[in-house]
Amino acid sequence: MKMGTTRAGRAQGADRQKGADKTKVELVRLDNVSMDEDDEILPDFEAEVDDGRRVWVTAVLERTAVIEPAPGEPKVLVNRRRLFVDPRHLRVRHLASKEAARRGREAARQLRLQEQQSSAA
What average pLDDT does range 54-74 have in this prediction? Predict the structure, then answer.
């Protein structure tokens, strides 16, 4: 069910409101959900595509999401700008900081170099 906004309004990142019986649920574009830089949205939640279809999100990537239009149907990749969600129903996981990940990769690289040098001697 599509209510209240035009494609132009959605393209400008406007929030949407959808009437559900007597309560209103505010839907926002998935790419506009505010999070910390080191957080990621966990999959498995319901969303609404900009054409009004309700879908199940099975993966959230950097700029896209994988959706299942209906149970058993093939999964489809869509841009996050096209999906509207209720942010209260999203689960978020905190990731290790990018700097900590970089330090870990560098330490592992140094360890491999040391092992290679030891075995060559």
Answer: 95
